[in-house]
């Protein structure tokens, strides 16, 4: 084992999905990670992917996913496969003592996720889902304001959106609209972010109840293309969150968190407008002036710089945990599996509410 491999976590990638290009770049940017192997269902496709992305000649190219899992020179794998394949390949990876960065949504329902997490716990390997925005320093900065009772006060209302104007070829052919591959559609692909943001703002306290609104749009195969839902917390004080996610609307990634004393707003919470910096608006103590012809304060724009893009920070944190397990005998962090499981529970509740005719589902 050379000095470089000792210092870094060696990654393999299972599959050549488009998102794998972004994560491969993130692995290259992260100071404690290196890409060692890539696999597709055919070696020719993997070779083409490697060439298109200018992977170094040292990256091993395989024509099956099993070969990456059997490679002793791979510590961890990134899995961007369709959700329906996650249980099989994540469990197999854990059984071969590979740490797994699993693309979201992590499972079709919580029973599948529990099978995955049980495999990771029994084999002592790290699990994390691919929610990149959680690793941006802006997220930590916002969290510091949410944690301060003197800033915005108890949270009363959260609103988030994740929408994109999918072209006809996406709506016809993308795996995210195929029931046999990613049957959750927009609920899994887009609502994962909005549900996750609502839970994050509430310190990962599960809501009391979840209700899908009746404006859901499905394709001919029954896959969700657009959905709106509400989450309600009644303790320690009442908080309402609304989410709207759609493949049919103009691009939006809004997050608004309103407390009794102030509010936070950002319009690019999933993918920042720029790689090297991000911002959010903070408004505290706002009132209308006399005659209600204006406001007494304007929002403060808070800027947060970052040396690495959020996806590289995600890889860096995941690699730190994996290296600690490999080199120091540490136990895997339970933080990230718990976050994924709570997000999945709410995704399941929204789906159940739809099946019940948009009745509230208690958690």
From TrEMBL:
GO terms for molecular function: nucleotide binding. Residues 9-128 form the Gfo/Idh/MocA-like oxidoreductase N-terminal domain. Pfam families: GFO_IDH_MocA, GFO_IDH_MocA_C3. Residues 148-264 form the GFO/IDH/MocA-like oxidoreductase domain. Signal peptide: none annotated. Gene3D superfamilies: Dihydrodipicolinate Reductase, domain 2, NAD(P)-binding Rossmann-like Domain. It comes from the Eukaryota. Belongs to the Gfo/Idh/MocA family. This is Oxidoreductase At4g09670. It comes from Cajanus cajan.
């Amino acid at each position: 084992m050379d000095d470089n491999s000792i210092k870094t976590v060696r990654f393999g990638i299972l599959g050549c999905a488009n998102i794998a290009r972004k994560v491969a770049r993130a692995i290259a940017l992260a100071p404690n990670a290196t890409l060692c192997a890539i696999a597709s269902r055919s070696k020719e496709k993997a070779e083409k992917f490697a060439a298109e992305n200018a992977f170094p000649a040292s990256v091993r190219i395989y024509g099956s996913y099993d070969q990456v899992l059997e490679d002793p020179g791979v510590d961890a794998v990134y899995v961007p496969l369709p959700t329906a394949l996650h249980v099989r390949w994540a469990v197999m990876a854990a059984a071969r003592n590979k740490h797994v960065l699993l693309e979201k949504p992590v499972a079709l329902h919580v029973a599948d996720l529990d099978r995955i997490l049980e495999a990771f716990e029994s084999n002592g390997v790290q699990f994390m889902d691919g929610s990149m925005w959680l690793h941006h320093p802006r997220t930590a900065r916002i969290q510091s304001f949410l944690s301060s009772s003197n800033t915005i006060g108890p949270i009363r209302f959260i609103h988030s959106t994740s929408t994109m104007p999918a072209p006809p070829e996406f709506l016809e052919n993308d795996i995210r609209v195929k029931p046999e591959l990613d049957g959750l559609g927009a609920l899994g692909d887009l609502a994962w972010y909005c549900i996750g943001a609502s839970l994050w703002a509430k310190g990962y306290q599960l809501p009391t109840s979840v209700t899908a609104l009746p404006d859901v749009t499905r394709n001919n195969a029954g896959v969700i293309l657009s959905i709106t839902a509400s989450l309600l917390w009644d303790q320690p004080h009442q908080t309402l969150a609304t989410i709207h996610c759609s493949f049919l609307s103009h691009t939006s990634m809004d997050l608004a968190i309103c407390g009794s004393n102030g509010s936070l707003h950002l319009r690019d919470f999933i993918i920042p407008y720029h790689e090297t910096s991000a911002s959010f608006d903070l408004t505290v103590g706002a009132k209308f002036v006399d005659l209600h012809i204006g406001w007494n304060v304007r929002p403060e724009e808070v800027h947060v710089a970052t040396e690495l893009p959020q996806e590289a920070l995600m890889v860096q944190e995941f690699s730190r945990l994996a290296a600690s397990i490999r080199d120091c005998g540490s136990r895997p962090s339970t933080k990230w599996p718990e976050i994924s499981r709570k997000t999945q529970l709410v995704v399941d509740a929204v789906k159940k509410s739809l099946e019940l005719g948009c009745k509230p589902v208690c958690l």
